[in-house]
Specification:
There is one protein chain. The protein is an alpha/beta fold and 123 residues long. It contains 5 helices and 5 strands, in the order E-H-E-H-E-H-E-H-E-H. The chain has one domain: Response regulator (Rossmann fold). The protein has a 5-stranded parallel sheet, sandwiched between helices. The protein is globular and about 30 Å long. The two termini are 18 Å apart. 33% of the residues are buried.
């Protein structure tokens, strides 16, 4: 079973994302900030990361920089899921190693579409 790490300071967002990913067949782990997520990844890398930008303790961009430096951290797909939707943020995220970028709010169709686009889900 593929694993997904959902990193967002909103419990509601994590819950909604978990329901979507579990329905697709992923096992899910949650983290409320980038530091907690990075600590989890040092133990076991997920196959996929859904990542918020603005969080306390450590933001998503800082997490992504640290994550990509971990052994094997260059392999998992990372998709930013945030309200930061201007071109500068998108370019910065992709330049830092994100594979894709989606805007909040999202739904199951948007998540499925991104997974299909990344070749992680058959249409």
């Amino acid at each position: 079973m593929k694993s997904c790490l959902i990193v967002d300071d909103s419990r509601v967002i994590r819950k909604v994302a978990r329901q979507i990913f579990e329905a697709i067949g992923y096992s899910c782990t949650e983290a409320e900030n980038g530091q907690t997520a990075l600590d989890l990844c040092k133990t076991a890398l997920p196959d996929f990361v859904l990542l918020d930008w603005n969080m306390p303790v450590m933001n998503g961009l800082d997490f992504l920089h640290g994550f990509r430096k971990l052994p094997g951290g260059d392999v998992p797909n990372v998709v930013f899921c945030t309200t930061e939707n201007d071109l500068e943020h998108i370019q910065e995220a992709l330049g830092a190693g994100a594979n894709e970028y989606i805007m909040k709010p999202f739904d199951a169709d948007i998540i499925r579409g991104k997974l299909e686009q990344l070749g992680l889900l058959e249409s």
